Fold this sequence. Notes:
By secondary structure, the chain is of the alpha/beta class. It has helices spanning about 1-20, 25-30, 50-65, 75-85, 100-105, 110-115, 140-150, 165-175, 185-195, 205-215, 260-275, 280-285, 300-320, and strands spanning about 35-40, 70, 90-95, 115-125, 130-135, 155-160, 180-185, 200-205, 220, 250-255.
Amino acid sequence: xxxxxxxxxxxxxxxxxxxxxxxxxxxxxxxxxxxxxxxxxxxxxxxxxxxxxxxxxxxxxxxxxxxxxxxxxxxxxxxxxxxxxxxxxxxxxxxxxxxxxxxxxxxxxxxxxxxxxxxxxxxxxxxxxxxxxxxxxxxxxxxxxxxxxxxxxxxxxxxxxxxxxxxxxxxxxxxxxxxxxxxxxxxxxxxxxxxxxxxxxxxxxxxxxxxxxxxxxxxxxxxxxxxxxxxxxxxxxxxxxxxxxxxxxxxxxxxxxxxxxxxxxxxxxxxxxxxxxxxxxxxxxxxxxxxxxxxxxxxxxxxxxxxxxxxxxxxxxxxxxx
Length: 322
């Protein structure tokens, strides 16, 4: 009798395997992400970068069901923190163009390729350039170049530091012009100086002067991009105006600590790109003055893109120091 019961139980278990099958992991069980994703934003809360990242975080949770937990850390400390995170595919940080000069400036002792795996582009913007008053005699970039060549050092340019100043130096090198720079503080100071006829021109980001452009007080002469911006299509490129000048756009990228698993990087890259293809979401970003990449930059593409931007910016940094 005991042998019969044992045989019966064995038969039941065999049938269960045949008809039900062994337990297998589903895609939902194994697909990344299976838990919250941490993102350290290298900027203060409430700033432009922070707002953009949080916009993406909202959409990320809608799509994946997992939250992006945002932590704000300003300055070089953020980049040091990101470098020291566990490279498990759930820890990321943001990296802007400005970081590409940090090692050279002595703010950190490592470069991006010694610490990070570039993962995805949150934003990219080439909307930076010369801005004049609407009543300026320089109505095109050609007017400005021609005058600058004829009157070396005569034009005063209001500028800040970092990328805008490097942009100006690269422009001067490309066009063989000499401009006199007045170093000012924040965006508001630049706008006031131009409105008050204290300078002839300023170098500014489109978003910083957008209200003045719309009111008719200012005019933006050109962007140093290959193609016109989809956010500000009314602004021509320098090249189409006959001035052969381009400059690497500013970026806000997601990076992971070196050694993070490729599966997580590639999946996150695809998720971010897919979000950017949503017309409603793209329109929200455009209303903020934020451009999206013109194509998908894979992890490999982004590494190449970052290396090129670093090379271009460092060449201008050396020019500024000399």
